[in-house]
Amino acid sequence: MVNISESLDSLIEELSSLPQIGRKTARRLAMFIIKQPKEKVEKLSKSLIDVKEKIKFCRICCNITEDDICKICSSQKRNRNLICVVEDPQDVYAIEKTNEFKGLYHVLHGRISPLDGIGPEDIKIRELLGRFDENKFNRIEELILALNPTVEGETTILYLQKLLKPLDIKISRIARGLPVGSDLEFADEVTLAKAIEGRISL
Amino acid sequence: MFLKNIYLNNFRNYSDQHIEFSGKLNYIYGSNGTGKTNILESISFITFGKSFVNSPEIDCLRFGEGEFNVSGNFESSLGNEFSVSLNYNSAVRKKLFYLNKERVPGFTSAVFGKFPIVFMTPHSLEITYGNPSERRRFFDITLSQISRIYLDYLRNINRLLKLKNILLKSYSSGGKITGFEFNNLLESYNDKLAEMASEITVRRNVFVKDFLPYLEKNFRYLISSNDTPFMEYQTCLNGKAEGIGISYEKENLFSEYRRKLEEFKNEEIARATCIIGTHRDDYIFKLKKQNENNKPFLLKNFCSQGEHKTYLVGLKLAEYEYIKDRSGVEPILLLDDILSELDSDRVEKIISHLNEFGQVFITSTESGYLGRLKQKVDGRDISVFKIENSKVIIR
Question: Over pLDDT 70: what percentage of chain B?
């Protein structure tokens, strides 16, 4: 194949290193960028730099924010005795969209997975423990562990549970089960079995 | 349920091959190395998700090509049609599956078990002769095809064992993890492992009890004496000694596994590998001989080659019947080159069984068996294929 342009190849290379982007999509995106007016491309590249320079982790919950302390942690309307622990910032957005949870969050930025070289010290567990310092923060009464129901997520839950046991606080995990509004007969067997296992007495 | 046709593109030695199958018996013959097994292997890809001889996808790629496609059309007993396609691309090393032309996110949840298969290859003899892993694989395949939940536990426990192994190895090689963190994480893995292992053990134990009558029935059909087969499920909990029974209640199994994991904790750390778990299970095959005070013989140590082969055929026929009963679907039977492995007596027994099976695929190096097949099965139900120069010729 004839090498058309080194700068184009480099852009395709960079784009295809992004998650969910394969080589074909990267090529298509690169072609789109070439066709754009210069101002638009400048704006795109500036926003890439901006986001990298301005976004940092909240000092309390480790969620991404432009301030020292994120909007949720600094809000006076939130229940400061309740913390929901999630794997990634996207999970915060997902739960916020429900408008039902009024506590604070803690973002771990991953889960323990020796397969990917991620140990307990590589995710924000130390920061989570720091939040139990009652001289600095409100007393935490309950922790909700909302990690993904994968092998890694579940074992990270067990790890946190052992770690937090001496603190003697209420710890819960979110339920697994059927999507609301769906029919039993269309649920896959594994989800249905988990839902039966996690049944609630009436 | 049967496979109406298949299309192979750059799969093994086939660049562009379409084959229409009979809903009953398909006899494929040709010299060694012409690609008979490859056809059965392609069927295993679209029913089972991977190669039935366990070869990696990259090996199935036609020399010099970048991707292969396999697609097949199935017809259910009610006349409904399904199409399953697989595309493998070597550049991204990815398998994409399509059900009825629509891309499915996971083969396991969308397709696996829908079109059950039972296969017998020369390698199948390892089930009775070989390592415990061969027996686990055989029964795992049987159980997975009728229970998605079992398959889910199996995949998760394999992932967990992998995680735990890496944790143990990185700790023994002086990784960055502290002693406290290591201990806490190992305890977490052991808790989860005990939970999953007991779920799997419960199911394997029930399975062995359910499966035994099927084995007895099919074995007795193969022999003239009154010998009876017997099989036992062995875990790291009940050990090798005979007669040590354990309670197979889930709660009891959990605490037993948890206790065993604690007992072997130091040894697991020292050897940096998982010792306790269902990955060490075995199924013990025995034969109760008529004239020998009814004392069961261990198949592995005390039985003749002929008895091994009879046992294997019995196991496979039992597997067929078991899956058929449990899933309500007639499995597709793939018999790869077994006519050369088994003696004519056993072949005769299988052949006379053929009318009771659904769709069957047989490969052989010779056309010699055809005459005998035609005595048992209506000629209209037999399709014969000869393979020459990587082309399939209908006879």
Answer: 97
